[in-house]
# Entry
Amino acid sequence: MRRVFQAQIYRCRSYCRVYLSYASGLRDRALKLFIVKDGLGLHGETPEMDEQFKGLKRGNYLFEITRPRNYQFHKKLFALLRMALDMQDQFQTMETFRDAVLISAGEFDLHQIRLPKIEEELDGKKIMVLKPKSISFAKMDQTAFDALYSRVIDALIANFCPGATPEEMDKAANEYLRFA
# Structure
C-alpha cells in the first residue's frame, strides 16, 4: 500500500510545526498530525500526536512541504486591487474588477457552458468561458501567492496603470494598506 504524506511547516519561535496527513489506497482516510522539528528532531506536538507519529512503520514517505499563506500579504493584494479600482472607471464593483484582473494575470480556468434558450440561433450552443481561479488560503500556498501577486501587478500596469513600475505599485499598495 502506497501512502502519500503531505506536510506544512509553520514557523514558530524555536521550532517548526509540521502538519502531516496521508491518504491510503482508494479510501480517503487521513491521519492528521502536527509534527514539531526542534533540536531533538521530529516529534508530535502533543503526546497523542507523538504516539501516532511514532506508530508509523519504517519506510519511505513523500512529504510535500508548503509555506502557509501570510495574511498580511493577502491584505496587501486586496489593498492593491482597491487602489487600482479607485483609479479606473470601467468596473463598478470589486468582485468584477478582481475577476478581470485575475483573468488578465492568467489565473483562470476554461469552462464550457451551454447557452439557455434565449433566441433560436443560440439555443443549446456551447461556448467557452473564462472563470478566475480561487485564491483562497486552502487553494494556494504562499509561494504560489507570491507569483500571483507579481502577475497581478504586471496585469494592472498593462491594463489600468500604464507607465507605473512594479516597485511603484508595490510601494503604493503598502501605503494604501497603511491608511486603509
The mean pLDDT is 76. The beta strands are 3-11, 16-24, 33-38, 41-44, 65-66, 108-114, 126-132. Residues 3-66 form one domain. The chain has five helices and seven strands.
